[in-house]
Amino acid sequence: MGQQKTRNLIVILFAIASFTVVIAGISAALVSAGVESGSVGISFGLTLSNRTEKLVASPRSRYDRIIVLGDSTVSDYPSGQSVPASLRRLIRKQASRVTEVISLAMPGMSGLEYYAFADRIAATHPDQVVVPINLASLSVEWRGEFDRVESVGWIPPSRLPDLLTRPFHTWNLTFDRILMYMGIVGLDLSKSWQRYGEEQIRAVHGLHRLRSALLEPNRRILADGLPFYRLPFHTEIDNRPNRIYVESIYGEAFAGAEPDHPVVQMLAGALEIYQSAGIHVLAYVVPMNVEHFDRIGFDTRTGTQETIETLRGVVESRGGRFLDLHRFFPDTAFKDIAGHFLQEEGFDGAMLLSARLVPELLRGELGRTQSPTSPTD
Length: 377
Fold this sequence. Notes:
The chain is of the alpha/beta class.
């Protein structure tokens, strides 16, 4: 009897392991075929779509409206200490009229997402849009790690002829996949696609946990149960990237990006949408740790300056204003390898950056009615 129970237990465990491997294999096959997990990209799109829809529906006739886009270097800070929050506080003190500052920044947002949601953002009727440009987003590494290809599903069908002139293939997008994502959004199947993606993730995590159970346990275990491995891109200096990592993230910016660079082309498309809608744009280059990059042997001037001038030309030729802030902070201002700004007693990177942006945002006449007060959040 005991042997029979043991045999049954082995069969059950084998069946569970086989099921996990099959599901993970299907997920891997879908990814290799170019169909990513629907969780992250669709979640991003749903969140941004819900935010813009609420803004379209909200009354704002008395207010000037500034919308701030960007990635985690804009948004990922303690509550009330992000770049948009700092802009809001400074503008309330300095503006002569009612001005609301609204953050639509989300981690990983860059050129592809800027283009995909430009029509929806324009429909919220902002007076100005702040467009941060992270030079890391020009890299293949960023496009593979952070860009959400499902975002193209939120592009209005009327924009499709323009999209077809853009280098969408750089993101492994094909025309049929674009139509598929548009269909998912148009038929209101986004949440179903999101659930499918979550099942993919669960299957892969299950495989990892099974492998961890069979192999020698690691002393350090992460919160989700996966073993910890030291990342290969740290230098001996805490929270600073090594040459391999910097090259993978900033190599294209250091080499000099041309106007036909795919991310630049998507950025240009977004700017053209705002220009057509009569919306003012302030674009700025996100500060990066130039001091550290110089220290580990990179030339951060020649090619980088070519990239800066390319971006300047693209922005200004489409009616926007451009600020080059890539050398704005010293090495001591950065808290991690991702380029987030330090925030501690006596130094607030987000506030210092915001203080540089505010004079540009308040230049000229923005709004409708003058007022010494500003709206509550």
